[in-house]
Amino acid sequence: MPKLSTGSKTDIFIHLGILITAGLVLFFAFFFLYLPWTTNHNEEIEVPNLKGLTLQETKNVLDSRNLTYEISDSTYVNGLKPLTIFSQYPKENSGVKNGRKIFLTIISDKAPKIQVPNVIGRSEGSAKNLLSSIGFLITATEFIPAIEKNTVLKLKQDGKELAVGSTIKKGSKITLVVGDGYGNTTVSVPDLTGLSYGDADVLINGSSLNIGSILYDNSSGLPEGTVVRQKPDAGVNLRTGDAVNIWLSGDSGQDLN
């Protein structure tokens, strides 16, 4: 039997080695490249809710899902922690591809300055709505004597008058100064003693005053419902709209209608 030459055996081993190497390459390529790619090719990743997270927390969450982010905008919101996530796109629970970029709006750490609109002459409610809608905080309403009832007469900030058109920080606290509807007119308190409650009520309203607290005195001996005392006394000057307290004879619980 003829024997193969040494050179022929070498060729066989070389070819065999090439085949084995090619087989291993194909094996690893199939299981570690092609198969994972085809498995994840159509797989979607659920976008997490990032609102309120810091940027570092956001990065950690997105890294764990093989997602990235980009800050696309910023906004100032009074009361919310600066440099946290305000909104995102795509929204939470959306399905996205592997490696998708999430666009973020963050809370700015600097309040922008905005112009104070002219609300003088507006009703209290209308002024509150307008000022609140552009980012100011209405923390108090101060009433002053003026016939323009519930009408804004001026604005205050930190106890000082705030000029319309001035520029202050968004989120600043503003006090509305509003007319009480009575003005500075004064009237003399009429004498109510000896009158029935009904007559006293008519007289006091006709004097642009109001009945205040109603107390009772069962020791006067006068008919039930008669005014036996009043405070302030008759003749005292009060501002229109002020109240006069009265004491009626009899016990509480009587029908005053």
TrEMBL record:
It comes from Arcticibacterium luteifluviistationis. PROSITE patterns: PASTA. It comes from the Bacteria. Keywords: Membrane, Transmembrane, Transmembrane helix. Residues 41-108, 110-180, 183-250 form the PASTA domain. The keyword Membrane applies. The chain crosses the membrane at residues 12-37. This is Penicillin-binding protein. Coiled coil: none annotated. Signal peptide: none annotated. SMART domains: PASTA.
